[in-house]
Amino acid sequence: MFSRYQFLQRLTSTTRSFLEFKAVFNSLSHSFYPFVRPNKAFQIPLSRFNYSSNHVNSYVEDLKALPGTEGVDLAYVEELMNKYATCKDLKLLEPAEVEWISNLFCDLMEAYWENGDHEKALKYLKEADDFQNKVGIKDTYDNAYCHFMGANIYSKRQDYVKAKEYLEDVERICKLLDENNQVSLEEKKETRNLRVQSWQALGAVYYSTNQEEKTFELYDAVLANIQDVEANGAASLLSVIYSHMRSIYGKRGDMEKYNEYRKKELDLAIKFYGENSKEVLSIHRNLANTLNNTGKFTEALSHGTKALQIAIQIHSENSRTAAWSYSLLGNIYKSTKDYTKALENYEKAIEVIEKLPEDQGNAQFKNEFYSRAAETHQLLGNTQEANKYLSKTNQQPTNSSDLFVAQGLVKQGIQYQMQRAYKEAHNLYRKALDIYEKGEPLDYAEIGKLYGLMGHTLYHQKEWSQAVEMWKEYEKYLLKINQVPPHHVYLLMANAYTVLEKYDDCFEYNSKFISAAESAGDNLNLGRAYFTKGGIFNHRRMYKEALEAFQKAEKLNEQQLGKEDPETLLAAEYVVKFQELIKSKEQPSS
User: Fold this and answer.
1) Which CATH architecture does the domain made up of 138-252 adopt?
2) Rounded to the nearest 10 degrees, what angle do helices 566-586 and 526-539 cross at?
């Protein structure tokens, strides 16, 4: 797919009239942007009709700043801009000119979007909106397209409320156009194309704000209407949808669905990139890992073998990618307890990686392969060989057998946890913890990590008291090495204390979460945390403080989830209630 700026390089001062310009562009544009804006010619941006030569010059400078515009006759652009700048009555413009100029603002907005300058893109979005409002362009395809691009800009800036507003307006306009009998079939086809893409974009907004059911609803609508989108555009949408659906199912621990969508991604990548491509290689490796972790060893070996074949073909046998692919096969064979085959692949990985230059990346992989080979030798009873490899990694060979057992227990526990078998996972973590706590010296990081994992398994079993005790130990061990738990752990602890009705403890850990999340700039769950804080203040009869917390909750939820989200509405309801409560208490009694 060409960039629109490659076309600009073909346009010279010989292109004078709009019709000539459009003819030149359309002769080139058959492959440009087929999945968003088919049959729309690129036009050079003009002025905003504010009758200011300085403003005209700023547009020329903006155009010059864009890469790939060296072939554009800027003097002619300025001539046109000044011509339109003297048009004091926009009603005198021909309809075709109005549409053309409107498109120009959208094009400049899109140009800066494509070049990563989102501030400039946002500036021209507002310019386009302003011009379209002035000349009465409303409820047209170009108006919808402008708002679609605006939603992309706001999504990139993580302003999901504004993005949602723009996408809902796109849906409103597209629906009107689709139901309008005076709109041509070609225009309706173009409109349906944009409409389906806006559903995917809105689904992505819901995905980014953890509203999974709404994400599914929008993505199901896209999949049911994907035939309305041009082939390359459909591939782009499907790639995003499959990735998001896979991620959601992975978070839920539904590895069957996770692998199902990964396989859909694989089919799509093979179709558009070819069997032997880096994109297909990456998916084969991911599938081999996840299938291995869920006990589907035959499928895992198939994908792992294919990954190795592609790695050798596109990178050569003596490459880091090939070495990692050998190691992946070693992992799968080790899972099937075929330790001889596992060792064979690990040693092949070592043979390849040792031939490569010593850099930080290769050294890291080399240590990883040494450790895996050592572990496999230990499982085969070859302690002397295991210690040889361990010595190369700077690890201590003492208690190596117990260490390998503990590492295996943790890996197996993580597999159970991903399948939501929390009790089984907890038991394996406990066994691994017993081993680590006997080690010398103590590995505070690993012990802390195990307490954290055990806290999660108990939390999911609704063993609230035990879960928070595990997380306290997690925090204690991390503090020994000057670290703190991820801030989401504090939120889970606050939630557990709420269930236990231990409101002072809840307040302590909820406050820790708020402080850490605000420092990290993570606003996603802050609204919920402030809502919890308001509830605690209410329990303490501190009504003014409760009101302030609910007001913050409403504001944060509105920013992240939107005005109509149930959590935003609930916070707003509590704001009104506490305003009335405080007012009633301030009034003198009769």
Assistant:
1) Alpha Horseshoe (1.25)
2) 30
